[in-house]
Specification:
heterotrimer, A mainly alpha, B mainly alpha, C mainly alpha, A: mainly alpha, Helix Hairpins, elongated, B: mainly alpha
């Protein structure tokens, strides 16, 4: 049981479901920004699991970790989107199937 | 106020850095001031410390600067030691060094660029720093630092005219031959440490003195290794080959490094370690024999040389042999005394020869000299004084030191070595007067154009000559033989604390003293021999223009050629060592390096390239492929965890 | 409504809109779906006694990061993803298989470990901000400051990356 009588199993199940959905998006979409969004979703799924355990274990450390993850996600989003802007200006596309310069 | 000992080597180091870093930019005036001034101040600093020490005497003073290396039970400090032995060395190293630096200003000024001039004084200052470190060191390791430092400077200064092929080759040769000796010194140092557990001079010698019987067995090898180092540095047979070639450097360098100071480092080191050598009679015997052989061997070669500096170089080798002969028979005081007097007159001779070469525009062959006495009056007179001193004519310095050595050899009951020493004294007088006669008397044999330009050297060059000639004349009175009174030998009295009474068990008997009557006879004999050699040379070369010598050479053509070719030692080494080594190096290069090592590397690279060729198709450039691979890996990991 | 019911509804909404996000081919709509999903997640955070994180989730994640996404999408005018046939069928099939396998493995591990490892809670954890803040600015102060440098670096980096180059 976590706070408010919510069982940890429910939290983890929701987290896992979100993670798998994000994974499917990351692997199946071709639009780079959609892939990026899916990755954000996976990160949130992880956050949810961490918070669930934090609540179950009465630890505030979990909240600290999630706080840092969100901050890092912000930095990542800024840099990632900047890369997409530069990339799009260069190749006129953000379809990852078209972007394969770094191959043999 | 007393000057700390570290100041003395630190000043030349400062001069070195100034000349090196700022010399080229600030020009010759600055370099002269910094290069000579640093040595001048160092000399003043050293003498301000030494004068009270000479007056009052005193034991060993050790000044510890900082711990240097500490590893387990091994520890070495940077520490300096002032005792009578190092005091004696520092006194003349600084003073003679200063005179030679002064001389260099006149000698080097005209024919060098600013950069070359700065380089010259930088190296000379670095040499003085290394030499003073060597002399003042309080342990073997710091001494070795100075030892290598002087070797390096010797190499740099021999090859100073590096654009000339033979000068660069001579520098290399000096370096390589010295390496053999340094190797021996290093091994000897290890031996000392394994025997005594310390490398501090005071500790090593007091432990050796406290328990002579225990250390004696191992000491023979250790002493021979140390002597190998001394042989390299002091150009003893068979490692003497580098010193004559070293004359390729500028003449003041020959005077400072290859006559007065560095080459005597070997004698200094053996004397410093006398407490060890005296416990190894076999090693002592080797020292004496090598010294004697070197003395006569080099003197014979000097007879047939025509290059003025080569004669002086072989003379130096011969005199160094004399010093080792003294050390080998236990007459360390006589050896050190000869180091001192030799520094005066040989530096004077080299500087005088430099003045001659300078006057003749670079000519070094005595066959194209002659009749220079009226044109170079100061040079001629100082040269003559120094020659007489070297020849051993009383009452000049060389007489007393040479006589002390011969007396020592006689007292040690070594008749053959005594005969060798005596004969060498005659040869020395002969070849030196041959040199003087060929150079200064008769008529000028060079080209008229060169003869017209002959001029006396500037004051910066003649002043050191006069001072050194004066010291060559009177220096001997510091060490009068015992017949002039119990305390007449002030050098012996001063150095006495350096030679603690150490005897091998069973060898406690002191040497039998030479009676005054015998000593007078010895002196008479040595003077007679020297005078005979001198007069013969005068007669042959000054009066009869060398014709008797030519007839003699013509009647033994093969022997003469052998001597003139320096006994073909260089050719022998070329066949024995140089060619096999270059052949071996060639094999290692062509076969081992190119075929084996490069082959392995190329084979490895080839395999990697093949694998890479195959695997690079995995690199699709498509991010989603990579992500999929990533996921497959995670699934595999999860399955492993679950199954486990 | 019990907290548990609220949690289940919020989590369900989050999952639903996550699905919408993945399925929709128009990126702007995907982002909007994700915003809703994140709001729902914020609700679950509140229920898990993390009101600070919930606030940060709404303000930073939904409010700043996703708006940045929208901004970039509109700046670039990214077209709708066109259905391609075949869009690398082998990759799609392999991916689908791997995702299913992963989901199965996740479920299995949840069953095996998830619920049992967490210690049951006897009392409500504090939903207070102060203890979190105290922890953040004492034990984790250095990390917190390092984070500000990271953000600065990201700022500079994105500026450099997105800058229009003068010459082609």
């Amino acid at each position: 049981m976590t706070a408010n009588g919510i069982p940890i199993g429910d939290v983890l199940l929701a987290s896992g479901a979100l993670f798998v959905i994000g994974l499917a998006g990351a692997l199946l979409r071709r639009n780079a920004i959609s892939i990026f969004l899916a990755i954000e979703l996976m990160m949130n799924a992880a956050n949810l699991a961490v918070l669930g355990y934090a609540a179950a274990l009465h630890s505030l450390e979990g909240q600290i970790v999630v706080f840092f993850v969100i901050a890092i996600a912000a930095a990542e989003a800024a840099v990632g989107l900047a890369i997409f802007v530069a990339l799009f200006r260069h190749t006129e596309t953000i379809d990852v199937n078209q972007i394969n310069l770094l191959k043999w | 106020m007393t000057v700390a000992l570290w100041i003395v080597p630190a000043l030349p180091l400062a001069g070195f850095l100034l000349c090196l870093l700022l010399g080229t930019r600030l020009g010759k005036g600055f370099v002269s001031a910094a290069g000579v001034g640093s040595i001048g101040i160092a000399t003043l600093a050293a003498w301000s410390r030494l004068l009270p020490y000479f007056r009052d005497g005193g034991g060993a003073v050790v000044e510890r600067i900082a711990p240097w290396i500490t590893a387990g039970n091994f520890s070495v400090d940077v520490s300096f030691r002032l005792d009578p032995l190092s005091a004696l060395m520092v006194s003349f190293v600084t003073f003679v060094g200063f005179l030679i630096h002064l001389y260099s200003v006149g000698y080097m000024k005209h024919d060098e660029t600013d950069a070359g001039y700065a380089r010259y004084f930088a190296y000379m200052n670095l040499f003085m720093f290394s030499m003073l470190t060597l002399v003042l060191a309080n342990n073997f390791v710091l001494m070795f630092v100075g030892w290598e430092g002087v070797g390096l400077c010797s190499y740099l200064l021999i090859g100073y005219y590096y654009e000339r092929e033979y000068a660069a080759a001579a520098g290399r040769k000096a370096f390589v031959v010295n390496r053999i000796g340094d190797f021996g010194f290093l091994l000897g140092m290890f031996g000392v440490f394994s025997l005594f557990g310390t490398l501090d001079f005071g500790d090593v010698f007091s432990r050796a003195a406290a328990n002579p019987g225990r250390f004696a067995p191992g000491l023979t090898v250790v002493c021979l290794l140390l002597f190998l180092g001394a042989m390299g540095k002091s150009a003893q047979v068979p490692l003497h080959v580098w010193l004559p070639d070293a004359m390729a450097g500028p003449t003041p360098v020959s005077a400072l490094i290859h006559a007065a100071t560095m080459v005597t480092a070997g004698v200094y080191m053996v004397t410093r370690c006398n407490a060890l050598f005296r416990l190894a009679p076999e090693a002592m015997a080797v020292v004496a024999v090598i010294g004697g052989v070197t003395a006569i061997f080099a003197a014979v070669i000097a007879l047939a040389q025509n290059d003025i500096k080569k004669v002086l170089a072989y003379s130096t080798v011969s005199q160094l042999g004399y010093m080792f002969l003294a050390c080998g028979v236990g007459a360390y005081v006589a050896g050190m005394f000869h180091v001192l007097t030799h520094a005066f007159f040989k530096a004077c001779l080299f500087l005088g020869s430099g003045a001659v070469i300078h006057a003749l525009g670079g000519e070094q062959d005595m066959r194209r000299m002659g009749g220079l006495a009226p044109k170079l009056p100061v040079t001629y007179r100082t040269f003559l004084v120094a020659t007489l001193a070297l020849a051993g004519i009383p009452p000049l310095a060389g007489f007393f030191s040479k006589d002390a050595i011969l007396t020592g050899v006689f007292a040690a009951n070594r008749p053959i070595l005594f005969a060798v020493g005596l004969f060498t004294a005659g040869l020395t007088a002969f070849y030196m007067f041959r040199l003087v006669s060929l150079t200064f008397s008769g008529r000028f044999r060079g080209s008229a154009e060169v003869g017209a330009h002959v001029h006396e050297a500037p004051t910066t060059m003649t002043l050191p000559l006069v001072v050194l000639a004066f010291l060559s004349a009177v220096g001997g009175f510091l060490g009068l033989p015992e017949v002039f009174g119990e305390s007449a030998n002030r050098v012996a009295a001063f150095l006495a604390p350096v030679f603690p009474p150490i005897f091998l068990p069973g060898h406690e008997v002191a040497r039998h003293a030479v009676s005054p009557a015998k000593e007078w006879i010895l002196m008479g004999v040595s003077v007679t021999v020297a005078a005979a050699g001198l007069l013969l040379a005068w007669d042959w070369y000054a009066k009869k223009a060398g014709r008797p010598a030519e007839r003699l050479a013509a009647s033994f053509p093969r022997l003469y050629a052998l001597i003139a070719d320096k006994f073909r030692i260089d050719e022998l080494y070329d066949v024995l060592f140089v060619r096999p080594f270059s052949w071996l190096a060639r094999v290692l290069w062509k076969v081992v390096d190119v075929l084996v090592i490069d082959g392995f590397l190329n084979a490895g690279a080839f395999v990697v390239e093949l694998v890479g060729d195959a695997l690079r198709f995995l690199q699709t450039g498509n991010v989603r492929n990579y992500a999929l691979t990533f996921l497959l890996g995670i699934v595999a990991l999860l399955l492993i965890v679950l199954a486990g | 409504m019990t907290p548990r019911l609220v949690f289940d509804v919020a989590a369900g909404l989050a999952i639903l809109f996550a699905c919408v996000m993945v399925v929709h081919r128009h990126p702007v709509k995907s982002v909007l779906a994700l915003v809703v999903s994140f709001f729902a997640l914020a609700v679950t955070y509140v229920l898990l006694a993390a009101p600070l994180i919930a606030a940060v989730q709404v303000i930073v994640y939904a409010g700043a990061i996703l708006v940045l996404f929208l901004f970039v999408l509109m700046l670039l005018n990214v077209p709708e993803e066109v259905r391609q046939t075949p869009d690398r069928p082998i990759h799609q099939a392999l991916s689908a298989g791997a995702i299913v396998a992963f989901a199965a493995a996740l479920l299995a591990s949840l069953r095996a470990y998830g619920a049992t490892r967490a210690a049951p809670s006897a009392e409500l954890p504090p939903g207070d901000l102060a203890p979190v803040a105290r922890l953040l600015f004492s034990d984790h102060f250095l990390s917190f400051e390092a984070l500000s440098i990271l953000l600065l670096a990201a700022l500079v980096g994105s500026f450099v990356l997105a800058r229009r180059e003068e010459s082609p």
